[in-house]
């Protein structure tokens, strides 16, 4: 009897414990806060921002723009239908802007494109006297210009580059000629300027100012033009 009563009491206690456990589990399931995974909605801006943020640092991965490269001024320029006065004005502006003679090269569309001359003489008698005077001073190839914008000018020599023309002009002044000039011959239609290195913005502006309305086109430097 004693053993049987203890067994019933133990069984009853076990059943009671099980019922209490089920009851407690029900309460927990009813009142304990749920922690379901919620995926928050994100708009387009948030998605883009998330795409460029690093989890570790929070720093942007967007590419950072580097310094803007300076635009290089052209060192090869072509002029068409440009007169000698403008060419010489440009050459003077380059010299005054610090570009030396060896750092600038003129390339006209004629080989003997430069000349030394006396300005046009309107009176025929003065023309003959000027020619006679030139020949007496040793300039045997002095010739009058018969046509074009420089009609009645007197040529004192033609040359392949401005440096030789400049030196000859100095020689003519030394011989006693007055009002001697040199420059590009009137027959030249196109001339190219090639600089040894890209000019500064100020030097390019000096070229534009000296061009006086006849703007050049940018050309490509080639071995033949340098």
Which helices and strands, and how do they pair?
Elements: H1 2-31, H2 44-51, E1 76-80, H3 84-96, E2 104-108, E3 114-118, H4 124-136, E4 143-144, E5 154-159, H5 162-174, E6 181-184, E7 190-195, H6 201-211, E8 217-218
Antiparallel strand pairs: 1-7, 1-8, 2-7, 3-5, 3-6, 4-5
What does this protein look like?
Among the domains are: 72-109 and 189-226, Alpha-Beta Plaits; 115-185. The radius of gyration is 48 Å and the shape is rod-shaped. Helix 3 (84-96) packs antiparallel against helix 6 (201-211). Helix content is 39%, strand content 15%. The model is unreliable at 45-55 (pLDDT under 50). The protein has 226 residues and is α+β, with helices and mostly antiparallel strands.
Please sum up the structure shown.
With 226 residues, the chain is α+β, with helices and mostly antiparallel strands.
Question: Which tags fit this structure?
Answer:
226 residues, alpha+beta, Alpha-Beta Plaits
The main pleated sheet reads as: 4 strands, antiparallel
Going by CATH, the architecture of the domain at 72-109 and 189-226 would be 2-Layer Sandwich
- State the total count of DSSP E strands: 8
Indicate the radius of gyration in whole angstroms: 48 Å
* CATH level 1 name of the domain at 72-109 and 189-226: Alpha Beta
Question: Order of strands across the biggest sheet?
Answer: 2-7-1-8
Kindly report the oligomeric state of this protein.
Answer: single chain
What class would the helix/strand composition place it in?
alpha+beta
Estimate the mean pLDDT confidence: 79
Helical residue percent?
Answer: 25-40%
Query: Which residue ranges are poorly predicted, with pLDDT under 50 across at least 5 consecutive positions?
Result: 45-55
Number of DSSP helical runs: 6
What's the order of the H and E elements?
A: HHEHEEHEEHEEHE
